[in-house]
Design brief:
Blueprint: H1 3-27, H2 34-42, H3 49-82, H4 97-102, H5 110-119
Helix pairs in contact: 1-3
């Protein structure tokens, strides 16, 4: 991968990271503390216990997904810095640029990713 491609992917990943952090901040109330947002969101006495439990589970699931996505972006940026970006972490082969453009945080080539998904279905 040449320097221009590295720069382009770094810009894409950095933009994704900034957008994700802004999204997380917005969902957590921006300048309002997370505790205040949770109290406001879950503090309605007219809501049923089941409804509150479902909402909490959804909030936690979204939070976990966002944190996993942020970690994947940070890991991709680290691979860019070390020079291993664009190499499949499983087989070591080059990941095609089209795949990286579609999913710049990708760890694996398509073949290895499919194998991983078949071994560990979601």
């Amino acid at each position: 991968m040449n320097k221009q491609q590295n720069h382009d992917f770094e810009q894409q990943l950095t933009g994704m990271r900034a957008a994700l952090l802004a999204q997380i901040a917005e969902q957590r109330g921006g300048a309002v503390s997370r505790v205040e947002v949770a109290a406001d969101h879950f503090g309605h006495p007219e809501d049923s216990g089941a409804q509150l439990a479902t909402e909490r589970e959804l909030e936690f699931a979204l939070g976990e997904r966002e944190l996993a996505e942020l970690a994947a972006i940070d890991a991709a940026l680290a691979r860019l810095r070390t020079g291993s970006y664009g190499e499949c972490t499983d087989c070591g082969k080059h990941i095609p640029a089209a795949r990286l453009h579609a999913s710049p945080e990708a760890l694996r080539c398509i073949h290895c990713q499919e194998k991983e998904e078949n071994q560990h279905p979601v």
